[in-house]
UniProtKB/TrEMBL annotation:
Residues 212-223 have a biased composition (Basic and acidic residues). This is Fibrinogen C-terminal domain-containing protein. GO terms for biological process: blood coagulation, common pathway; fibrinolysis; platelet aggregation; positive regulation of heterotypic cell-cell adhesion. It holds the Pfam family Fibrinogen_C. It comes from Pleuronectes platessa (European plaice). Transmembrane segments: none annotated.
Amino acid sequence: MPSPRTQFSLGHGGHQSPTGKPRKCSYTFLVPEQKITGPICAARGYSTDKDRVTRLDVAAVRDLLSKQRGEMETLKLVVDVDGNLVNEMKLLRKESRNMNSRVTQLYMQLLHEIIRKRDNSLELAQLETRILNATSESLRLASRYRELETKYSALSAVVNNQSVLIGALEEQCMQVYSRRHEHPPMGPPLVQVVPENIPVNVPRFTNEIQRDHNQRFVRERGSRSGPSPTGDTLEVQNPPERNFSTEGIGPFRDCLEAQEAGHSTSGMYLIRPDEAERPLQVWCEQDIDNGGWTVIQTRRDGSVNFFRNWESYKSGFGNIDGEYWLGLEGIYNLGRQGDYKLLVELEDWMGKKVYAQYSSFHLEPQSEDYRLRLGTYQGNAGDSLSSHNGKQFTTLDRDKDAFTGNCAHFHKGGWWYNACGQANLNGVWYNGGVYRSKFQDGIFWADYGGGFYSMKTVRLMIRPID
Ligand SMILES: [Ca+2]
């Protein structure tokens, strides 16, 4: 770039200096600075031509461009339409695929359903078969049960007959070996009641009997003669043990009065009936059937011997919190002070309890041998006591029954025997229910279990009529 003033220097030869040497001249041109306002072009002529062509071209190209643009638009539209079609196609394809898979799914479902239905129908058929089998099985069991019932009846009859036979044979043996000339006593007819209710258990023949009297009874059984009717092998000569004490709450007229006085728990109470000479200890049952029940007899474990004489049965014996007999005089005194009803509670060896209730109950005085007076029966144990209604009390040493012999001897207890009885609740306590004995001497209630089924527990209780 030149400075604002460009210097041009020109050399001039030929001149020489006075010193003999050629002289040199120099010129300096000052050129004013020229202002350049436009572009400096190196080849201006050619550019001008080119510029003119380009404008035409530009117009043409613009035309072309706009045409092409229009075509592009058209194409774009076409492309758009095509794109939409493609998309639609894609969607349709997708839908078709979905439909296919749905159809497959439905087909599988249908197959599954068909299989399931087939399974169901198979199961149904199996169930039907099973029901048919069960029905035939139950029919078979029912007929088997009937057979067993028949067998049971037959066996009961056999047991009864065999007992009679054994008795007869024993008597014959006794005649032969003891050379006794008098006829031995024949037993009373056996109870032949086929009870409506048979305690369900495995019949178990047992000779286990009352605990504290096992020895004696075994000995008696060993001799095969039974206890003598005179009872000299029993406790007749001994005063009966009795642990009745004067302890207890009371005295009240009876257990209902005790209950009404606010004593609502079952237990030992002291009572003194109106005409009684002395108070008596009793067990009051305040829990069942509204309470107020005076228990006059209990059997439950064979701990007390009930094969006793008249005096024992008159005055009572046993343990109030165990087995006991209140005493005929006491029961008589209770019964004469009001109107009483009687409840007999029986429990079999399966633990099932049944009841017999009599609408009224009292005893006649000793001068009438404590004759039993009963009202009408209701309950689920069966009525095995009404046949004893109006009968006097019989013990080993006081025969007031209708039988030629002494029923107390055969049934081994004291009771209002007829000839002899449908009930023997003061008999021998046998363990296990069904027992084997020469006579029907167990604690039986003929309408519940028959004559050779001994109850597990028994309670006789009385309560004033509401
Ligand atoms: Ca008699």
